[in-house]
Amino acid sequence: xxxxxxxxxxxxxxxxxxxxxxxxxxxxxxxxxxxxxxxxxxxxxxxxxxxxxxxxxxxxxxxxxxxxxxxxxxxxxxxxxxxxxxxxxxxxxxxxxxxxxxxxxxxxxxxxxxxxxxxxxxxxxxxxxxxxxxxxxxxxxxxxxxxxxxxxxxxxxxxxxxxxxxxxxxxxxxxxxxxxxxxxxxxxxxxxxxxxxxxxxxxxxxxxxxxxxxxxxxxxxxxxxxxxxxxxxxxxxxxxxxxxxxxxxxxxxxxxxxxxxxxxxxxxxxxxxxxxxxxxxxxxxxxxxxxxxxxxxxxxxxxxxxxxxxxxxxxxxxxxxxxxxxxxxxxxxxxxxxxxxxxxxxxxxxxxxxxxxx
Length: 358
Description:
Layout: E1 3-10, H1 16-29, E2 35-43, E3 46-50, E4 66-67, E5 75-77, E6 80-82, E7 86-89, H2 100-108, H3 117-124, H4 126-134, E8 139-140, E9 143-147, H5 148-152, H6 156-169, E10 174-178, E11 188-190, H7 196-204, E12 209-214, E13 219-227, E14 232-234, E15 238-241, H8 249-253, E16 258-260, H9 267-284, E17 289-297, E18 303-305, E19 308-310, E20 315-322, H10 332-339, H11 344-354
Parallel strand pairs: 1-2, 1-7, 8-20
Antiparallel strand pairs: 2-3, 3-4, 5-6, 9-12, 10-11, 10-12, 13-14, 13-15, 13-17, 15-16, 17-20, 18-19
C-alpha cells in the first residue's frame, strides 16, 4: 500500500509564500507511484489539507481546503477520515523551522523529515547556533545581539551608544538582520552610521531579536547534505555571485544572481566545506536535508586570478545553518542534486523511507 505523505507548508512568518512554492516543488519531485501526497497549509490556527492540488492548479494552494483535526493531524473528505504516515516539513520560519511543529508531531507520533525540537530551536536562533558551533572550532563573524524589549526601553543617548559599539566592534559596512528570519527579510547592509538605527528597526519587524554582524568580504558558497542509516551524501557546492549589495530577496527569488554549481573553488576547499557541513550535521543532530552557508575569505596571498585560486589555504567561515532549506525547482538543493547526477525523487524517497527502516 502507498504511504500517505503530508507536505506541510505556510507558517506564520514573512516566508509564507516562499514556503508554499517549496511545497509545490516538493509535490512535483516526490514519487507519486509510491506515495499519496497531500499539501497541508498552516497559518495560525487555520490548518487546511489541500487534497485537490495536483501540481497543475496553483490556485488551490491559496483556496479553501479540508480542516485538519489537530488531535491526530487527520482530515475528512466524503465521510472518510484520512490520516498520514509521514510529514515533510517545508515551513520556512515559525512554527516549522523552530521546533514548535516538531514537538506537536512528536506528541502525536507522526514521523517527519527534518531535525527534532532541540536542533530546530537552536539552529533557528542564528546567534545561539553560530556561537555554539564556534565552540567546536568553526570560524564565525563578530556579532552583537539586541533584544526588542530592552531596545524599546533605551533612551536616545543609549541608542547612539549602540552606533558607537557597532562601529568600534564590527566596523562598517556590517549586516543588520533578524536573529530568526529567513530569505533576507529585514536584512540591511549598513554602510553609514546614520543607517544603523533604521536598519535595527526594520529587522525588529521580523522578530524579537536582531543581530548586527561583521561584514566578511569573500566568496559565498552553500553546501547541502543528508544522511540515512547507511550513507552520508554531500552535494556539489554552489557559489553565489550577485550584483546586488548582498544575497537579498531579489537575488534569491527574482533571478538577480549567478548560482554556479559546482563552485569555482580548489578541490581541497571543496572537500573541507563538504566535510565540515557533514560534521555540523552530526553535531546538531540533524535529520533529512540541511544546507549550510559559508563565506571563504583570503588567507595570506590566497587570491583568484583568471578564475583560478592561488596561494595558501583560505579561511572558511560559517554564515548560517538551514534545517528546512528551500525546495522550489530553482532552489539550491535541487540544483545541487542535479549537479551530483542524482534524481531528487530518489533523494526524497531516501529521506522518507529512512524513517521506516530498521
